[in-house]
Write a structure and sequence with these properties.
Layout (H helix, E strand, L loop, with lengths): L6 H27 L4 H11 L6 H13 L3 H22 L9 E2 L2 E2 L1 H5 L1 H20 L5 H15 L4 H9 L8 H27 L4 H28 L9 H24 L7 H12 L3
Antiparallel strand pairs: 1-2
Helix pairs in contact: 2-6, 3-4, 3-9, 3-12, 4-6, 4-9, 7-9, 8-9, 9-10, 10-11, 10-12, 11-12
Bound molecules: geranylgeranyl diphosphate (GRG).
Geranylgeranyl diphosphate binds next to helix 4, helix 8, helix 9 and helix 10.
């Protein structure tokens, strides 16, 4: 990718946005959880703060910037997506799923507070994400469309399907490449795609442009997961896990990453003011952790 702007400034903007989002999320949540017993509040806050990279909400804001939608307007759906993402990680770490003891450099929620609490905190975050959306002060048609999209990708047309496929035997889907694509698309890409579709809806894009945005979102989502597979593979984590480098080998995987990045950059020509967005895409493609 070619960069004609100062990456340092873009990184500062990214860090500012992450801080802005995290602070505002904590404030927003307080009205929903303040009356809970201290122990329960502690578990919720532990699972969300300081949090991870916050790449999904920031991608949503950067996409909004491209379309002339202020990030304030997108704060509620961005929070909703971040809660769903965090719920999925809490459940993914459970002994019955990936059985991971650590997440983001600290004990996984089930290790810190016990398995039953981790299941319940995950369930609570998932339902809270929809409560937030239902309280979003936006055109009711856009709110309704967003709830419809988000509920689909959180369930059997997205995360849950991806996780079911991931836990199942890959012989379910005879073709190995097709199987790994489906896992990646459902487990990761669809949630990221929605992060672009929501600003598109708020900006009232016409269907053709919304479709292009969806395609970019899908490719960024695939790019994110394939890069994640590559990082895990190189660091020899999850050695037995089926992943892109296992199927396409290292060179093949790097080529897929390169091609996806180039295709995204090319399609971005349909949008103006895409500097920050492009910076994030590049950050995803080149990340090492
Ligand atoms: C429905 C329980 C359930 C799970 C759905 C999303 C998912 C399937 C499982 C989560 C585990 C996982 C490896 C998902 C793939 C997407 C991914 C790489 C998640 C990690 O996202 P980051 O790197 O996390 O954005 P941070 O910590 O930065 O927020």
């Amino acid at each position: 990718m070619n960069f004609h702007f100062n990456n340092g400034d873009m990184e500062k903007k990214f860090i500012r946005d992450v801080r802005w989002f995290s602070k505002k999320l904590k404030e927003e949540l307080s009205s929903y959880i303040n009356s809970l017993p201290k122990k329960f509040k502690e578990m919720i806050l532990y699972s969300l703060f300081p949090g991870g990279k916050r790449i999904r909400p920031i991608l949503m804001f950067a996409c909004g910037e491209m379309l002339g939608v202020d990030k304030e307007k997108l704060f509620i759906p961005a929070s909703s997506i971040e809660l769903i993402h965090n719920y999925s990680l809490i459940h993914d770490d459970l002994p019955s799923m990936d059985n991971d003891d650590y997440r983001r450099g600290k004990l996984a929620v089930h290790k810190k507070f016990g398995e039953a609490n981790a299941i319940l905190i995950g369930d609570g975050l998932l339902t809270l994400s929809f409560e937030l959306l239902s309280n979003w002060r936006e055109d009711p048609k856009i709110v309704n469309k967003t709830i419809n999209l988000v509920s689909k990708i959180a369930g059997f047309d997205g995360l849950v399907l991806g996780q079911l496929l991931d836990l199942a035997d890959y012989s379910l889907e005879k073709n190995l490449k097709r199987y790994i694509y489906k896992v990646c698309e459902n487990k990761t890409a669809k949630l990221i795609k929605v992060c672009l579709l929501i600003p598109g809806l708020v900006a009232r894009l016409r269907n053709e442009k919304l479709k292009i945005l969806g395609e970019i979102g899908h490719k960024i989502g695939m790019l994110f997961q394939i890069t994640d597979d590559l990082i895990d593979y190189i660091s020899e984590q999850n050695k037995n896990k089926l992943c892109y480098p296992k199927v396409y080998l290292l060179d093949g995987t790097k080529k897929i990453i390169k091609n996806l990045s180039a295709e995204i950059e090319k399609t971005l020509k349909y949008f103006s003011n895409s500097k920050y967005f492009l910076y994030l895409v590049n950050k995803i493609a080149q990340r090492t952790n």
